[in-house]
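Incident log entry.

Two folding requests arrived from the same account within the same minute. Monitoring flagged them as a possible duplicate submission, but the sequences differ. Recording both here for audit purposes.

Request one:
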Amino acid sequence: MKPRRRSSTRTPAPPADNDSKNSKPLKSNDFLIVGVGASAGGLQAFTQLLRHLPRNPGMALVLVQHLAPKHASALTELLSRTTDIPVTEVQDGMALEPDRVYVIPPDQDMAVFDRELHLTPRAETQLHLPIDRLFRSLAEDQGSKAIAVVLSGTASDGTLGLKAIKAAGGITFAQDP
């Protein structure tokens, strides 16, 4: 005698997926913040990077370039012509948003605190290291979620900031000369 099969109208439960149990839905402020530094001649490197990014990369890109302290910068305008991603010159206290490019203004240093960009006047008496300043603040603010990219230059600005991000468990990249 064969055992009877029970018919059921219930749909079987999907198999357990351990990865989905551990993953959390992204909150609106869970996007990545990427610090990008370049020397005064970094326009071409910035342009190439932005041309290869999708319209909605899902991250905020914060660009720091060595700029002449007493001259207006056309960097924001020039980069706006090369990408569909909105490009904005930073104002103090500006909240970061995904799918945006933020550019440092001349004669300022910039840091990230609580997912906001904060500006301070450039000190004239000290060695000016704006890339290190941004990267170190990014390491403190974002920890292991910090990402930094150094695109151009032969000096050491950015080196200490890259070390801080690596120490925090973040990710760093440097353009091959």
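Request two (distinct sequence, not a duplicate):
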Amino acid sequence: MAILHTWGQNLLDHPHIHCVVPGGGLSPDGSSWVSSKREFLISVKVLAKLFRGKFLDYLKQAFQAHTLHFYGKNKELEIPRKFQKLIDQAYAKEWVVYVKKPFSGPKQVLQYLGNYTHRVAISNHRIIDVRDGRVIFKWKDYKDSGTMKTMSLTVEEFMRRFLLHVIPKRFVKIRFYGILSNRNKKEMLSRCRELLHEATGDDETGAESPDPKEPFMTCLTEEGYLLCPECQKGHMIEVMVIEPEPLLKNTFKLDSS
């Protein structure tokens, strides 16, 4: 599954793709499940070069088919030699691919991404104030160890940045491949479950279930649910929950009407 995101915390262009990849797949004849190695999925260096080659090849095809459009300062890229120069520069750069295991398991990753992908650029809780023709909002500076900062933009600049990430009508930003492709998903997943002897219902492995609040709270706050708000490095541990004291029967209520 591949999911396109186009923004960074400061709302500027930061196009990147999140991909969820299973640790294995069906054999070509569909008779067996082929698992990846437990501690190794794929070489990121090979994947980066392969992705770079495929992406730039499709970009050149789009240019030749006249389906690419350039505006403003990029208008000169309509000239073939200018466009080719851009392609050559992109080939010369090392592209970055980041691969990691899901921390709390695949279910939590899918739940998190499912909520995260249906927002555009910024959520309401990050907007601190709108006054005097300016918008003030919180953002996380990843170049400064993820420090939370505030940014103030004119309303016009804020809207310009926000509208950069409103996708065109009928544009598909979430795509499914392989065993999750829409055409054969039902049959393929059924075959995978059969081969993996997947248990139905509750998890029978005996592993401790992750905190169900964590992905939800992380989605809302865009910060670690248990991350210390002061140092932004340590993690808080829930020791106990103190319930509110029950109201006494003879408690009088104040009527302010």
